[in-house]
Write a structure and sequence with these properties.
Blueprint: E1 2-5, H1 12-25, E2 33-36, H2 42-49, E3 55-59, H3 76-81, E4 86-89, H4 92-97, H5 102-114, E5 118-123, H6 127-131, H7 135-147, H8 152-155, E6 159-162, H9 176-194, H10 196-201, E7 203-207, H11 212-220, E8 227-229, H12 236-244
Parallel strand pairs: 1-2, 1-8, 2-3, 3-4, 4-5, 5-6, 6-7, 7-8
Helix pairs in contact: 1-2, 1-12, 5-7, 7-9
Glyceraldehyde-3-phosphate (G3H) binds at residues 5, 91, 163, 168-169, 207-210, 228-232.
């Protein structure tokens, strides 16, 4: 699977042009392709991908409550009614700028699953943690807090995105070995808690400076099931090249 996270980029007309160009370049992707678009574009982009077996749309956030007086927020029910299939939750930018922690993210994941949305749960360590060699402790803790209350059926609808914070938007991609090591660790954690069938089948994406020139090698690692792409998803040529770098299932 390849998911693009546009973050706060593209106007609605730019977004539509980008999706049209990607779909024209890769009309039949060999993998699931998801556009994570700004809230104002959800309906418009959903219209463009509607009916396509491999293209889908993700919201970049969602509120944990069912409905109510939460000005500026989007609910799970609204996303589902608009035809949206995925929601990105726990991105490091929301952890940093909106103060989200794994307890809150756990509430959001539960709400999303209750409505049939598929959460793309983001986790990952900061640079000082990596330098101290504590990345598995920190990511393990994030996953435990955010996902351990789920049952095997629920977790099987979750996509995990490992995004080392030091690699996001910096051009400093994790090495293939670093990515593989963490993905294997995450898969083992999920297998231990939910059983090996769930662990073997869960999709674990790598995110952090994925580009056309490193995607193929990263995606060739046995536990890397694709990517969550920021900057390189904003340009049709580079996103199309990354989609085409996914190894066949
Ligand atoms: O959600 C995507 C990540 O934050 C990666 O962003 P990037 O590809 O620009 O490093």
């Amino acid at each position: 699977m390849v998911a693009g996270n546009w973050k706060m980029n593209t106007t609605p007309s730019e977004g539509k042009a980008l999706v049209r160009a990607v779909m024209e370049k890769v009309p039949n992707p060999a993998t699931r392709v998801v556009f994570g678009v700004p809230a104002i574009q959800l309906l418009g982009i959903q219209e463009l991908v509607k009916g396509h077996p491999n293209y889908a749309v993700a919201a970049q956030n969602m509120h944990q409550e069912e409905s109510g007086a939460y000005t500026g927020e989007l609910s799970a029910a609204m996303l589902v009614d608009a035809g949206i299939e995925y929601v990105i939750l726990g991105h490091s930018e929301r952890r940093d700028y909106a103060g989200e922690d794994d307890d809150l993210i756990n509430l959001k994941i539960n709400r999303a699953l209750k409505h049939g949305l598929k959460p793309i749960y983001c986790c990952g360590e900061k640079l000082d943690i990596r330098q101290a060699g504590n990345q598995e402790i920190v990511v393990g803790h994030q996953i435990e807090q955010a996902l351990s209350s789920l049952d095997p059926e629920q977790i099987s609808r979750v996509v995990i995105a490992y995004e080392p914070v030091w690699a996001i938007g910096t051009g400093m991609t994790a090495s293939n070995e670093q990515a593989q090591q963490m993905h294997a660790y995450i898969r083992k954690m999920i297998s231990n808690q939910f059983g090996s069938e769930v662990g073997n089948n869960i999709t674990i994406l790598y995110g952090g400076s994925v580009k056309p020139n490193n995607a193929r090698e990263l995606f060739a690692e046995p536990d890397v099931d694709g990517g969550l792409v920021g900057g390189a998803s904003l340009e049709a040529d580079s996103f199309a090249a990354i989609i085409e770098a996914v190894r066949p299932a």
